[in-house]
Amino acid sequence: MTHENDILIVGGGLNGPALALALAQAGHGVTVIDAQTSEIRKDAAFDGRGYALALASVRLLRAIEIWDRVAENAQPMLEIKVSDGRAGEGPSPFFMHFDHAEIEEGPMGHMLEDRFLRRAFLEAMDAEPRIRQITGKVVAQAVEGAGVALTLDNGDVLQGCMAIGSDGRASETATRAGIKRTGWGYQQTALVAAIEHELPHNGIAHQFFMPPGPLAILPLPGNVSSIVWSETAETAAQFDALDDDEFMEILRPRFGDFLGDIKLRGKRYTYPLGLTLADSFIAPRLALIGDAAHGMHPIAGQGLNAGLRDVAALAQVISEASKRGEDIAAPDVLARYQQWRRFDTATLAMVTDVTNRLFSNDNGLLRLGRDLGMGLIGSMPGLRRSFIREAAGLTGELPDLMKA
Questions:
Q1: SS3 string of the chain?
Q2: CB count in 10 Å sphere of residue 247
Q3: What is the pLDDT of residue 3?
Q4: Residue 2 pLDDT class (50, 70, 90 cuts)
């Protein structure tokens, strides 16, 4: 069986559907291939997992008509407080405080649960006639003249002008194309959960750096926050093996009492942490986006935001090429996407890597240096605003879909 489409997207997580919608709205026929059925992904219940969506990412979601579907479930992030310290001792007196009011463009971003964003993408794709959704696993891919052919595990062959790999850090699409990766593990694991608390968070996100790794406390609607708590892999495995009451006893001195009494809500998850960067974001008639192209430490919450920036950039490159009558998967067209995104992404990955190494230790001199550095940044309005704009995703060459 053969299906003809302009573009074949492998991976139905979040970046793949976002790109599918952007391209479909620009007039392209798109097929999204995912191993899970859309019904399974639509019916997800509360599990505490959420995303810190930068302002630029919110603009993209608004442009592809997703934001109105999720806005009522999103929590604005009005302030970010960054501090350093040890568990049970409280934060250092030197810290960074970022307030969205300093850039006068609205909240720096929003927190949104995974279940709401995923469901919104699936419903939007269902309503878009230019998007075909297929459940299956790609087992082979080949470049055939001016197109690509993807073979599914049921024997079907899908043909298109080009393929997009959006299938995660272990991207088989990239592997089949001969694209190698550079990266390393941090010997850290992220413990992820949702926490109910007695007092309101007032839309403030917290990043507390401790020697084993950072603890991010990210506001969700109501008196609920999502935590991303990085520990050494060995310690995280021990904490993960505890029952919920024991887990909370370990968390409380790290979380602190600034939000009153806290309790666990929903399930707990663990994710090994590492850095991975594809040596190339492109191959013949192929481009990579999101985690298939890059995976980084969640220290700055930029994983999904970087992927959505890939989406906006690639959609623009393809649309502009199409309007000029170019082959949208020609080598020079794909090179424009790579030139736009790979250096910026590699720089961001290195910044998160260096930041994690700088803060995830208990060296006295480094502690003094980083605390003084945070105090200096916090006291300089111009530098502080630069950090706020970076957190909001407003720096660099913004794709059109991310402009106000």
A1: CEEEEEEEEECCCCHHHHHHHHHHHCCCCEEEEECCCHHHHHCCCCCCCEEEEEHHHHHHHHHCCCHHHHHHHCEEECEEEEEEEECCCEECCCCEEEEHHHCCCCCCEEEEEHHHHHHHHHHHHHCCCCEEEEECCEEEEEEECCEEEEEECCCCEEEEEEEEECCCCCCHHHHHCCCCEEEEEEEEEEEEEEEEECCCCCCEEEEEEECCEEEEEEEECCCEEEEEEEEEHHHHHHHHCCCHHHHHHHHHHHHCCCCCCEEEEEEEEEEEEEEEEECCCEECCEEECHHHCEECCHHHCCHHHHHHHHHHHHHHHHHHHHHCCCCCCCHHHHHHHHHHHHHHHHHHHHHHHHHHHHHCCCCHHHHHHHHHHHHHHHHCHHHHHHHHHHHCCCCCCCCHHHCC
A2: 17
A3: 45
A4: very low
Q: How confident is the model at residue 1 (pLDDT cuts 50, 70, 90)?
A: very low
What pTM did the predictor assign? 0.91
- What band does 92 get if pLDDT is binned at 50, 70 and 90? low
Residues 170-204 have pLDDT tens digits of: 999 999 999 999 999 989 999 999 999 999 999 99
Q: What is the tens place of the pLDDT at every residue in 283-296?
A: 999 999 999 999 98
Say how many C-beta atoms besides its own lie within 10 A of residue 190's C-beta: 22
Count CB atoms within 10 A of the CB of residue 168.
17
Mean pLDDT score, 78-94: 74
> With contact defined as beta carbons under 8 Å apart, do 275 and 297 qualify?
yes
Quick count: other Cβ atoms within 10 Å of Cβ 383? Answer: 13
For the cut 90, the answer to whether the pLDDT of residue 161 exceeds it is yes
